[in-house]
Specification:
The protein has 176 residues and is of the alpha+beta class. The chain contains four helices and three strands; from the N terminus they run αββαβαα. Helices cover 32% and strands 11% of the residues. Strands 1-2-3 form a three-stranded antiparallel beta sheet, with helices on one face. It starts with 11 loop residues before the first helix and ends in a 7-residue tail after the last helix.
């Protein structure tokens, strides 16, 4: 509806707009530090200064507000440029990242399940921490075992049975 009287003055910050583009989207990261109590990853985590989080519009249904709010949190972390990890650790993180690692050596994760930017941000940061912790956790060595004698005999018996079935399907030579 309209105003009945004089309009209130518009603040100067709104009229001028942001002076540089980085101020348009606030990049907030917290909760990712080198934590000595984090036993899973050997006390290492991604420093918040190395993480970039952008907020973009979520996909899917949502009514009138879905096209107005940017609640999807998209996290980017450059593994190669990180100073918090050794080259061996970076290689393990790259191997554990799978298809989330792009050609620029960045891990890209996104969260859009919640309606709040803050909840999605916390969720995507937690997923990055879990990914790094999983990649850096020691893998249990496989205990080599031998095939038992009875299993070898069963396998050979099955091979004989299948071979004899195939032999029986053949026509004898000269009868065709």
């Amino acid at each position: 509806m309209g105003y009945y009287g004089e309009r209130p003055p518009i603040p100067e910050e709104v009229l001028k707009g942001p002076e540089n583009k980085e101020e348009e989207q606030p990049v907030m990261t917290e909760g990712v530090e080198n934590d000595p109590e984090n036993k899973e990853s050997g006390g290492l985590a991604v420093p918040e200064s190395e993480i970039q989080i952008d907020y973009v519009r979520s996909s899917g249904p949502g009514g009138q507000k879905v096209n107005k709010t940017s609640s999807k949190a998209q996290l980017r972390w450059n593994v190669g440029a990180s100073r918090a990890f050794t080259e061996e650790q970076k290689a393990a993180i790259r191997a554990g990242a799978g298809n989330r690692l792009n050609n620029e050596d960045e891990i890209v994760l996104a969260a859009q399940t919640e309606r709040s930017q803050f909840q999605n941000r916390d969720q995507v940061v937690e997923r990055l921490q879990d990914l790094v912790a999983e990649a850096l956790s020691p893998k249990p060595e496989r205990k080599q075992t031998e095939v038992s004698r009875s299993q070898k005999q069963q396998r050979l018996e099955e091979k004989r049975r299948v071979g004899s079935k195939k032999r029986d399907r053949k026509l004898p030579r000269g009868e065709w």
